[in-house]
Write a structure and sequence with these properties.
single chain; about 120 residues; alpha+beta; two-stranded antiparallel sheet; 4 helices
């Protein structure tokens, strides 16, 4: 459980907290019944050091940040149309390039018309 926690949970929490500058993460550890038995606070900037100390975990924060930078650069090139009815669906699999498909008025649209109309009247 500790290995999976460090390999997957800490990576996800670090990625979600690093970019927006969240300084600390409070984690509740629960049993199989869902009851939290204790809390532990992690400093976001120290999580990579925690991972380095555990040789079985193999993620590198630089790799994560570089992937994010490359992905967002790719998104800026691909997304050409500012239309709430157009959804760009990106897919990535390890050892493969990022691919995308464009969907207009599709099942992937998620902003309701009332929201768009309310937003347009306030801008």
């Amino acid at each position: 459980q500790q290995r999976n926690f460090r390999r997957y949970k800490l990576l996800k929490w670090w990625a979600q907290s690093f970019l927006p500058g969240v300084p600390r993460i409070v984690c509740g550890f629960r049993d199989d019944s869902g009851i939290v038995h204790y809390l532990e606070t992690f400093k976001t900037m120290e999580i990579p050091n925690i991972i380095k100390a555990d040789s079985s975990s193999q993620w590198n924060p630089s790799v994560c940040v570089n992937f994010c930078d490359q992905f967002l650069t790719h998104v800026k090139k691909v997304v050409q149309e500012d239309d709430h009815r157009v959804v760009y669906l990106f897919t990535w699999r390890p050892n493969s390039p990022v691919t995308h498909t464009v969907h207009r008025d599709s099942q992937y649209c998620f902003l309701p018309d009332w929201y768009i109309q309310a937003f347009e009247t306030h801008t």
